Structure formats: C-alpha cells, structure tokens
Amino acid sequence: MDRKSRTSRSASLEETNEELSLWKQICTSLAKLENIQKETESVLNNINKIHLAVNFDEGISSTLSQRLKEYYQNGISLSSTESRTINDIIEKVSVLIALREASENSNEQKRKKRKTEADELKHASPGSGKKSKSDIILPGITVAAKQPKQKDKNEEWILAVVISFHPDKNKYHVEDIDQDESGQKQRYFIPSRHVIAVPESHEIRHLPELKAGQDVLALYPGTTCFYKATVILPPKQNKDISSPGTYKVQFEDDNNEMKYVMPGHVLEMPKSK
User: Fold this and answer.
1) Are 129 and 170 in contact (CB under 8 A)?
2) Least confident of 79-88, 148-157, 166-175
3) Is the pLDDT of residue 150 over 80?
4) pLDDT at residue 99 tops 50
5) What distance in Å separates the CA atoms of residue 150 and residue 146, rounded to the nearest whole number?
C-alpha cells in the first residue's frame, strides 16, 4: 500500500483528541520548566560566587555591581516565567483530569447500555450462531474492519462502528467512521474474521504490550485506515518526550520512516484463514 493511498482518508483521530493534545502540551511545558529551573540555578550560583568573593563593607566596583544587578534582574525574570509555566501546567492538568473523569463516566454509561444490549441479544437468539455470546462484538463498538474488495480499490482495514451482528451468516454490519466524497458513511457486511474490536480507553491499561519486532495492524497517523506495521518500541520503552505512551512503529512500504501510534490503535495481526 503506497503512502498516497494512506493520506486519502484525511480524518485524524489523534489530531482531534483533546486529551492527547493536552498531554503533549503538558509534556512540552514540563520540559520548558526543567530548562528554566536549570537556568535559574546557574544564575543563583553566579550570584553566590560574587557574594562569597566580595567584601561589601569595603565596597564593590561599578563593573561587578552592574553584573550583579543583571544577575538579579535575570533571576527575577526567570522566577516570573517559572511561576507562569507552573500555573499553566496546573491548569492544563486540571482540565485533563476533568476530561478523563467525563470520559470515564461516559464509558460507564456505555458499558451499562452494552450489558443491556448483550442481555437482549442473549434472549433474542438462544443457542444460535457460530460464535459464543462472549465473543460477539456489540453494537456501538469501534472496530478495525477489512473492507470488501471493490473495483479499482485495494482492500483496506478501516476504522468502523458495529451496527449489528448476524449469527446466521456470521457477519457484522458495520459503518465506516469516515465519510466518502459525497458526505455519506458507507456500510458493509463483513465476515467476523475480518472484524477486530478496538480497545477502549479503560481497557488499554490492562492489555499486555506488544513486543518489539512484532507484526501488527496500526492506524496510520492522520488517517482512518489500519496498515501492516512492525513494532520498533512498545510504550514503556519509548522515551520520546513529544510522544509519550505511544508505540513507535514502522509501516510497510513507508520509506523506512518511524511513526508514533496510540496503544489502542495498534492491534495484533489477525491470523490468516
């Protein structure tokens, strides 16, 4: 799959994810704060050296006095910048906490709704289907779904939402999360082996990390398509401050470039059947 086809689906979940954006801003501000504090420490050391070297009772030269004045002014300026940066970080962290709490409340409501739907499904289709009830992906769940082959188009794993499961055909009815050129969201009937549930935020922390070197399906940044990639670094080993908590991956046929992908958007490669 060439890079041009990847960028044709322009919807970007990462760019519209307010929580991720805030977290990146916080990390940037923390790095800035560390640099300010190092510079402040240097200024204070210079001031202390002058105070230790000079006997102020005997007077101080105008040159040294001017230098000391500049150090004090620089220290005051750095202290003000440090204070503003800390307040900015505190504000962003407060907003992030509020967003997480709202998201968790929303997820709790979704879980209750899905439990009800699962109970309804259980009573509606007793003893049926090739899949056990616990394996069925419920309506409303976000998935990676392999599009049916279309004329003049390559098969792609797209980001979609489950509409319903049809046990008699062992297929899912899904809706593409992205709009086509006419502004419509296409729907497809897809065999269950070509549908993979995307972990929700509350599930991600409990998932084992995929290992370096492992082949995966990963959401290509800036798109709503999954492509084959290889894990270079799992989140715990990724020390890049600009992309914390992400997988570092290399996509197939992507000029050996490295990309960063959120954990929930990196999936185990399905077994070929």
Assistant:
1) yes
2) 148-157
3) no
4) yes
5) 11
Same fold, 11-109 and 141-197: no
Cα dist from 206 to 199, 203, 235, 247, whole Å: 10, 6, 13, 16
Query: Tokens in use for 250?
Result: 């290399």
Place of tokens 């080993």: 237
> pLDDT (tens digit, 9 = 90+) per residue, 201-220?
788 888 899 999 999 999 99
Structure tokens at 253: 């046929």
User: What is the Cβ-side half-sphere exposure of residue 196, based on CA atoms within 13 angstroms?
Assistant: 22
CA-atom Rg of the chain in angstroms: 27
The CATH code for residues 11-109 is 1.10.287
List, in sequence order, every residue forming a beta bridge with 190; answer none if it has no partner: 172
Strand partners, 162: 174
Domain range list for the chain: 11-109, 141-197, 202-268
Q: What is the CA angle 178-182-183, rounded to 5?
A: 45
* Helix (H/G/I), strand (E/B), else coil: 119: helix
CB atoms within 10 A of CB 136: 19
Pick the CATH number of 141-197 from 2.40.128, 2.40.50, 3.90.1530, 2.30.30: 2.30.30
